[in-house]
Amino acid sequence: MTRRDPLRDLGQRVAEANRAALAERSVLTAVRCRLLATPKNVDMRPGLELGDRRCGVACVAGALVGLVAG
Amino acid sequence: MVMPVRTPDPSQTRASGVHALGFTGDDSALARALRRGHPGAPAALFDRYGRHVEGVLINLLGFDGEHEDLLHEIFAQALTCINKLQDDERLKAWLTSIAVHTARSCLRRRQRFRLFLRRAAQQDLPVSVADAETRRAVGRVYRLLERMPTELRLAFALRFIQGMELTEVAAACDVSLATIKRRLAKARRRFMLAARGDSALASWVVPDQEGQR
Fold first, then answer.
1. Which tens digit of pLDDT belongs to each residue from B189-210?
2. Model-level pTM?
3. ipTM surpassing 0.85, yes or no?
4. Could you tell me which of B156, B166, B155 has the C-alpha nearest to residue B194?
5. Range B109-124 burial, b when 16+ CB lie within 10 A, else e
6. Residue B60: closest CA among chain A residues belongs to which residue?
7. Residue B144's closest CA among B184, B209, B193?
8. Residue in A7, A19, A28 nearest the CB of B188
9. Is the Cβ–Cβ distance between B41 and B101 less than 8 Å?
């Protein structure tokens, strides 16, 4: 008798639920438009968020400007 | 009896007949077309593998608010770095490895800034696609994965949720087969330990079947 791996069963159930959810909430159309409409296909994130690399760069730049100005 | 034949309106024919040339061909041809800048190649790449990459991303991270940005980032990176693809026939595997790399960066960024950021916007599965028990259990699976080190989590999700072969997981994570086996063994132990004590997952993991690969 073949014993079944519970983690594979669990994984399959999760994947199945994800697939079903993707059928409803897929972002393919939105991403396709965004990707193909963007010149040179550059990353076009809407805004700056804490944790974003650009935010760190902005902080460092701001601190340097502050130091120089001070 | 002679059936009337509709003659097409010339203006409509002209309007509907103007389409950008699509791309047809296998993965090698597609990769070459991308390098040469074929106008239809980026769309063909996305149409061919968008669904696959989106699936990988969701299986790695679960549903969250960032998945649109990440999917865009993966394809933007692929289109920019197409010259780095060494084996044109492995286009799909290459895209998968970019997806894994992007998910890894995202998870590390979240971990680094978890004290300052609000909890990553993990979304529940839509009510219409699963019953309450399944939605709760899937949510718990991703909560448990959040507590794992990033590399273990990625290996676990690729192997057990995405259902990839060991060699494919190793290639996607850019490590040796031995390393991926070690990581999976660790991830399995950690997950089983946590899942056994979780009421939502108790019926999903059967304790006496643990230990198999």
1. 999 999 888 888 877 777 554 4
2. 0.75
3. no
4. B156
5. bbeeeeeeeeebeeee
6. A15
7. B193
8. A7
9. no
